[in-house]
Automatic annotation (TrEMBL):
<dbReference type="Pfam" id="PF02449">
    <property type="entry name" value="Glyco_hydro_42"/>
</dbReference>
<dbReference type="InterPro" id="IPR013529">
    <property type="entry name" value="Glyco_hydro_42_N"/>
</dbReference>
<dbReference type="InterPro" id="IPR017853">
    <property type="entry name" value="GH"/>
</dbReference>
<feature type="domain" description="DUF5597">
    <location>
        <begin position="474"/>
        <end position="527"/>
    </location>
</feature>
<feature type="domain" description="Glycoside hydrolase family 42 N-terminal">
    <location>
        <begin position="48"/>
        <end position="201"/>
    </location>
</feature>
<dbReference type="InterPro" id="IPR040719">
    <property type="entry name" value="DUF5597"/>
</dbReference>
<keyword id="KW-0378">Hydrolase</keyword>
<protein>
    <recommendedName>
        <fullName>Glycoside hydrolase family 42 N-terminal domain-containing protein</fullName>
    </recommendedName>
</protein>
<keyword id="KW-0326">Glycosidase</keyword>
<dbReference type="Pfam" id="PF18120">
    <property type="entry name" value="DUF5597"/>
</dbReference>
Length: 561
């Protein structure tokens, strides 16, 4: 805490009585939060019908994204018009906000970077990954190994932070998430020539020193993956120059370590500049691996798979969480998005080193609502927030009643934390008709809580040429995917998709209602045109929102090499 933060009521984190608390208006604050769908915050008009519903759900904090592509559509020209309107509306509704910066990365891809970044691969190189046939292909991730990329993102994020410092006098914004679920999907590491050169060069001495000095206190998952390093330490001096595979062996986990080191440095560069501009709590989040059931690059929905590349390789998961903590001092904490992982073990992992726990994404159904109690009660979480809140109604939202009760208890909960009184959150899963509860008793004398769930880029690019295609889509119940017919096309993606409404049926004049990205375009892979009652399938992340205007204008681009 600094004096200026306290005097100006800038939100800050404070450890009191052994537990972390978020201080808002100079008072402890319990986050009863929920996260919006990816495209909702692109339009203040779209949000007009949502604020009241959020209040009826007993929510006090809304998590919503601010995207690089929306605030800097033209390089060097920043527009915060929609954000400003949204902040005013949120405050009027009696709600606070946590902003999610979708900059270089969101869900292991770069679909939220502006069009001038997407199409200029000579200035903003892409990473390369192996395709199914082993041939390298261009990914949709901008490179973390080139300074142009991080410099551009840093500039944009710093402008956002300065803007908030200047206009958010009522401190509607409580915290900022820097990037979203960073890491590389589709391969365990970037295989561009520049990345290969770094990978085959000497491991930075300070990383070797850090690992050797902390080897026995690293997370157990990290220790398990560093077996080769234990042997190497006996063979080499820590000041010796050896490649990544010399030190750590040849494996996808060495690739993951390499990517984690560079991703963390990338994110820290952005966070440090942003915090200098506005000293508000900053964090980043993690896409967790799917519990091991065979591995492979399998299904990327919800939790990916169990190997690096099936989940974003290099993100801040347990294998590399200690390295992330070490390399990102400007982040106040790292947060897990929990959908399929062991809830108790995950919460414990992300509290490592006495850090605050916050869950920015989790299931929005009844099991998720039950998890809430463990997070707040047993792990002293700042909050645990369901994703996809705005496509539910208050009466069908599993957290509505839970948040009402927690709101009435929050003073007691916060006071108990300040007084170092132990709190314990627990839940019982629903039983099928006639099923006996065979779970053992929960003992408060144990040091852990048991969950009883039904277990559920690039220097070889001499020249890049891009083309654009603009299409209008109408209707519902389908999706559209685009692919260049050019034999020299290396990548085809969605540059921009906008939901439109007809303002004049005679002239056909259209108005933009929402900017669609993320889940609504499957992270730039296709355009979803869902029906009024989407089929969410067997997954528990609501990847579709119900049909809006049923009109979408989409710009598609392709890069020819």
């Amino acid at each position: 805490m600094t004096i200026s933060q306290s005097e100006n009521h800038i939100p800050f984190l404070r450890k009191s009585g052994g537990a972390w608390e978020l201080i808002v208006d100079n008072k402890p604050y319990l986050i009863l939060g929920a996260e919006l769908h990816n495209s909702s915050m692109s339009s203040a008009r779209h949000m007009e019908s949502i604020w009241g519903k959020l209040r009826a759900m007993n929510i006090n904090t809304v998590l919503g994204n601010v995207t690089w592509e929306d605030i800097e559509r033209e390089e060097g020209v920043f527009d915060f018009t929609e954000l400003d309107k949204i902040l005013v509306a949120a405050r009027s509704a009696g709600l606070r906000m946590i902003l999610l910066w979708f900059g270089s990365f969101k869900n292991g891809s770069s679909t939220y970077v502006p069009g001038w970044v997407k199409t200029n691969t000579s200035h903003f190189p892409r990473m390369r990954i192996r395709g199914e046939n082993g041939i390298l292909k261009l990914s949709d991730n901008i490179s973390i190994f080139h300074s142009e990329c991080v410099m551009a993102d840093t500039k944009a994020f710093t402008e956002l932070q300065r803007h908030l410092a200047n206009i958010d006098h009522e401190r509607t914004v409580l915290m900022i998430q820097v990037q979203n679920e960073v890491g590389l999907l589709g391969d365990s590491r970037d295989r561009s020539p520049h990345a290969d050169k770094l990978f085959n060069s000497a491991v930075p001495n300070h990383l070797v020193e850090f690992l050797s000095s902390n080897l026995n206190v690293l997370h157990s998952d990290a220790q398990e993956k560093l077996g080769r390093f234990r042997d190497a330490v006996l063979l080499y001096q820590t000041t010796e120059q050896h490649s990544w595979e010399d030190w750590f062996g040849s494996s996808v986990y060495t690739d993951e370590l390499f990517m984690a080191y560079h991703y963390a440095i990338y994110v820290e560069s952005i966070a440090a500049a942003g915090k200098e501009a506005y000293n508000i709590p900053l964090f980043t989040n993690a896409w967790l691996p799917k519990p091991a059931v065979g591995g492979g690059l399998g299904n990327l929905i919800a939790a990916g798979g169990s190997l690096p590349g099936s989940y974003p390789s290099g993100g801040p998961i347990s294998n590399v969480i200690d390295i992330w903590h070490w390399l990102t001092p400007s982040l106040d904490f790292v947060a897990p998005d929990i959908y399929a992982a062991d809830y108790t073990a995950t919460c414990q992992t992300y509290k490592r080193g006495g850090r605050p726990l916050f869950v920015p994404e989790q299931r929005r159904d009844a099991p998720g609502a039950r998890w809430l109690w463990e997070a707040i009660g047993s792990h002293q979480a700042l909050g645990a927030c369901p994703f996809g809140i705005d496509s539910l109604e208050p009466e069908s939202f599993a957290y509505t009643a839970q948040y009402k009760l927690l709101d009435s208890l929050k003073a007691l909960i916060l006071r108990s934390r300040q007084e170092s009184k132990r709190t314990f959150g627990f839940y019982f899963d629903e039983l099928e008709g006639g099923q006996a509860d065979e779970s053992p008793p929960i003992s408060l004398s144990k040091s852990s809580i048991f969950s009883y769930l039904e277990h559920l880029f690039s220097e070889d690019l001499i020249q890049a040429v891009a083309w654009l295609l603009r299409s209008m889509l109408g209707g519902d119940g389908f999706k559209v995917e685009f692919k260049s017919r050019s034999a020299t096309s290396a990548f085809t993606g969605i540059l921009r998709a906008e939901e439109k409404s007809v303002q004049d049926p005679v002239t056909g004049d259209l108005r933009t209602e929402r900017i669609l990205n993320g889940d609504e375009t499957r992270s730039g892979k296709w355009v979803n045109m869902p029906s009024e009652n989407p089929d969410y399938g067997d997954g528990f992340i609501p990847l579709l929102t119900p049909a809006g205007t049923r009109i979408v204008e989409v710009q598609v681009y392709s890069i020819d090499e």
